Amino acid sequence: MTVTNESATPRLLLIEDDPAFAARMSRNLKASGFDVTACGDVDSARSRLSEQSFDLVLTDIRLPGESGLDLLESLSEPVGAGEAEAPPVVVLTSINSIDTAVEAMRKGAADYLTKEATRDEIVLRLRKVLERVALASENRELRRTLHRFDEFSDIVGVSQAIGRLKQQIKEIAASDVSVLITGPTGVGKELVARALHQASRRAKGPFIEVNCAALPEENLFLSELFGHERGAFTGALNRKRGHFEMADGGTLFLDEIGELGPLAQARLLRSVETLQFTRLGGERPIRVNSRLIFATNKELMREVKEGRFREDLFYRINIYPIDVPPLRARPEDIAPLARFFAAQFAEKHHLPAPSFSEEALDTLRVNPWPGNIRELRNVIERLAIRFAGRAIEPAALRDLNLTGETAGAGAVLLPECGVDLEEVEHNLVVQALQRTGWNQRRAAGLLGISVDRMNARVKKFGITHPSWRVHREAGAGEDEPAED
After folding, report:
1. Is residue 416 within 8 Å of residue 409, measured between CB atoms?
2. Using one digit for the tens of pLDDT, what is the confidence trace for 26-43?
3. What is the pLDDT of residues 69-105, one digit of tens each?
4. How many CA atoms lie within 13 A of 1 on its CB side?
5. Most distant CA atoms of the chain, gap in Å
6. CA dist 312 to 372, 394, 396, Å?
7. In the chain, what are the domains?
8. Which residues contact 213 (CB under 8 A, 6 or more apart)?
9. Which tens digit of pLDDT belongs to each residue from 263-275?
10. Cβ-contact 253, 241 below 8 angstroms
């Protein structure tokens, strides 16, 4: 594991069989800001490396049993995908063994030091090794981030909902409070999580994403999240570092948290509370310094009431909720999003960007967009290729079954694939609440129902909002019914 931010204390493993020299070296390094663990032989070092992570190994070459070069060779072996990356190794040698030190460099050592070197020189050289490794790690993470982040460059939109969303990100980015991002599939919950990370003091650290829905088997999820020790189960040939550990110093984003089973929920609860975990097959707890962000397209309070999600876990992750409304609830964002995606895909495919007639934009605005921003993005990519450098008219949208027509005032088009009527009702209630700043009386007016019927639906779907608790404690006012 490499140092991920400048304030972290470098964790150093010192391997030296001379007790007096080891004590003096440990004392000097601790005084210079290192967290030092010392041992006297390679077997002990391997045990330490299997139990915890280190940023750097400083080893004597001549040791009882296996030598420092033997350890260096084993740590320099390639690792498989997801396995723990070995820390850099600096070798210690006497002034008369420079040839051995050069051999160590050929075998992969990051640097070598003579035992006669001064304390200042040793500290300087060790910190330079850490800086090089941290820079290489940062560059690798940057390449991974750019690869994952090519579909968005910012949160695009001009609606009040997007304005509130950006304000929320600004307010909480600097803190380490856990965040639960809610909203239907395709609205950009990952984009919000990345924006929170980039605006935080952890921006230079890793952003590690885990899609819980992609790991339905609970033991597989636990192995991916917490890692495992060698021999923990059949096929575990090497120690593997989990996503929780990889997010040390940065942000861990658990998407689709509502898909977890009971075993995974129980294990996750303990780790969320303590920021500690144990690898599968391991015994020693590992502590990390990560910010936790969660996302779901489910109404978790309803999942709690129906026994599918732990109540204690819900309240632990729902410290600061952020709701991302569906695209159909903010039609004023569709035109800027369409132009943004058109320009983006024109650049991607080396084509001139298309334009949109006002009639075409009107058609896009009234389309229901059940797939939200993801669906709009896919549509615009097709149009950007087909109409490169030309104006997009309503006829082009009709070819994609985007007519913008309705069957009459207040009518809703039924998609060919059908709908879940209860889900539609739930979504409409949430949209009305979002548009009215979570005022139940005004939301009831938007839906053309009484306040009592609105309250009944709020209870039916288990909908909650932090502002209601304030009203409930202060006493319900005429304009804002309190929850029962």
Report:
1. no
2. 999 999 999 999 999 999
3. 999 988 877 655 445 578 999 999 876 666 777 888 8
4. 31
5. 92
6. 31, 51, 51
7. 11-144 (3.40.50.2300), 149-323 (3.40.50.300), 327-398 (1.10.8.60), 421-474 (1.10.10.60)
8. 255, 256, 259
9. 999 999 999 999 9
10. no
**Whether the predicted pLDDT of 151 surpasses 60:** no
DSSP 363-401: HHHHS--TTHHHHHHHHHHHHHHHTTTSEE-HHHHHTTT
The beta-strand segments (E) located in 72-206 are: 89-93, 111-114, 179-182
Helix axes 98-106 and 68-75, enclosed angle (nearest 10):
10
What span, in angstroms and rounded, lies between the C-alpha atoms of 364 and 387?
Answer: 16
Q: Are 409 and 223 in contact (CB under 8 A)?
A: no
Q: How far apart are CA 247 and CA 265, in angstroms?
A: 19
* Angstrom distance (rounded) from CA 131 to CA 119: 18
> Are 173 and 216 in contact, with CB atoms under 8 Å apart?
no
Report CA 144 to chain centroid distance, whole Å: 13
Distance CA 9, CA 25 (A): 17
